[in-house]
Amino acid sequence: MARPWRVAIVGGGITGLAAAVRLRDRAPAGTEITVYEQSGRLGGKLRTGELAGGPVEFGAESFLMRDPAGGESAAVTLAGRLGLDASIVHPTVGQAALLVDGGLRPVPGGTLVGVPGDLEKVAAVARPADADRDAGRPLLAPDEDVAVGALVRERLGDAVVDRLVDPMLGGVYAGRADDLSLVTTMPALARAARAEHTLVGAVRAAQAAAPRAPGAPVFGTLAGGLSTLVEAAARASGATIRRDAAVRELRRTPTGWQLTVGPTRDAEQVDADAVLLAVPARPAARLLAGAAPAEADTVGALDYASVALVTLALPGPDLPELSGFLVPAAEGLLIKASTFFTTKWGHLRRPDGLALVRASVGRYGDETSLQLTDDDLAAAVHRELSAVLGAPLPTPVARHVQRWGGALPQYAPGHADRVAAVRTALRAAHPTLAVAGAGYDGVGIPVCVRSGETAAEEIITALGGSAA
User: Fold this and answer.
1) More exposed terminus of the chain, fewer Cβ within 10 Å: N or C?
2) Cα 457 from Cα 461, distance rounded (Å)
3) 111: CB partners within 8 A, 6+ apart
4) Nearest by Cα to 380 from 397, 401, 366, 364
5) Per the confidence metrics, is the pTM higher than 0.90?
6) Phi and psi, residue 89, nearest 5°
7) Which of 103-107, 211-215, 413-417 has the lowest mean pLDDT?
8) How much is the pLDDT for 1?
9) What is the spatial distance between Cα 146 and Cα 319, in angstroms, rounded to a whole number?
10) Sheet holding 268-272, edge to edge
């Protein structure tokens, strides 16, 4: 009788756990799945905590409900697989604002991550330039990638980038539109731009390709907090979960792979038939260095931004009926985005009137604010929020500062091609070694779930096929 497969997953974030669930569902019965997490906590950037006696997210707060083709997102599908679909809740207040010239203005509708499909709708925030003319050819060549900012500045002018696109991308990636790949950060727009002759036309085509029913929610979260998704995935995977288990080295053997796990003085050698690396790019590069040095160099070149999330518990503040607001870099604040949790999410509203407000601090290339102490950072956030809202906010009864070092990948143009080349080389030379996660495929829970599931399918194929 053949020995059961042994699959090692390095990284216990949602990517690695989604991969483990997919392996359990599709790999032959008896497959041994082990998840190695170097910290003591699963979930990566999904972390539900408590502040002032109530739940709050210290990392990601929600997921997209739809995928780019218009179907349900991979996060929604995974929640259903785990029996959590009934726990999905949606924002009760969806309107967000932009800080423009020191005042809050509603985020205009009809945009795709800030890029307008209707110029009149954005004119109150940013007057577009009159340069989006049909030149008789598609905006992008078939294999071309450009920085988002370069394309939008050329077609619609600086104001649309600086006041709309940049703060929206900054809220997601903590990066700048002038540095970020269109193909990776806005794939639907990139696809449309290969056929359409104007940017406004490309936005409209991308929106038409994935229509949303009127009133259908864009975002969701789980009533019990996103950590419930992590816990349910870990249980459903049936995997052996090893916390505080850093994988320090990966070596090819005649029959598979050998992992060196744990501290140097007490290292453990573990054999596996296949390995899935679901960790950020730099630790992945270190593990790839022995078996695939050229691919390791490519992976390790990806840079990341660090951010801090400051959450304040405020007694009875006078907050606007908004989900939050975004801050263009030109406004000169430490805050780049803020979320009014207990306004946005009805299930978090409290009978005592206590409000939870979170602010995100830290932009790629300008992270000096993160050198402040927790106390000074919380005080600065409180001061800036009061200024934006036009009145002093109450003194917080509690606060929490969550620092995420190297949290958000910065995808330079050409990123997708570089990742494709790495994966092609690994499939050819090491088909039982796969990489997955935000460092390759993009940010957001659905993207990470899909990335992990796809890598798991590749490993199943490489080892001999599915049990299904």
Assistant:
1) N
2) 6
3) 117, 121, 122, 164, 168, 203
4) 401
5) yes
6) -125, 165
7) 211-215
8) 43
9) 39
10) 247-253, 256-261, 268-272
Vertex 386, ends 383 and 388: CA angle to 5°?
110
How many CA atoms lie less than 13 Å away from 190 in the CB half-sphere? 20
**CB-CB contact of 194 with 141 (8 Å):** yes
Residues in the chain, overall count? 468
User: Which amino acid is located at 118 in the chain?
Assistant: D
Q: Is the dihedral of CA 65, 41, 404, 249 positive or negative?
A: negative
- Cα(first)–Cα(last) distance of the chain, in Å? 19
Question: Burial letters for 324-358: b for 16+ Cβ neighbours within 10 Å, e otherwise?
Answer: bbbbbeebebbbbbbbbbbbbbeebbeeeebbbbb
Residue carrying the six token digits 């104001």: 159
Dist CA 73 CA 66 (whole Å): 4
- Pick from 124, 407, 458, 450: nearest CA to 280: 407
Residue 354, CA atoms < 13 Å, CB-side half-sphere: 18
pLDDT band at 466 (very low <50, low <70, confident <90, very high): low
Cβ pair 46, 229 in contact under 8 A: yes
Count of CB atoms within 10 A of residue 136's CB?
Answer: 6
4-42 in b/e burial notation, b at 16+ Cβ within 10 A?
ebbbbbbbbbbbbbbbbbbbbebbbeebbbbbbbbeeeb
CA-based nearest residue to 130, from 160, 90, 109: 160
**pLDDT tens, 270-326?**
999 999 999 999 999 999 999 999 999 999 999 999 999 999 999 999 999 999 999
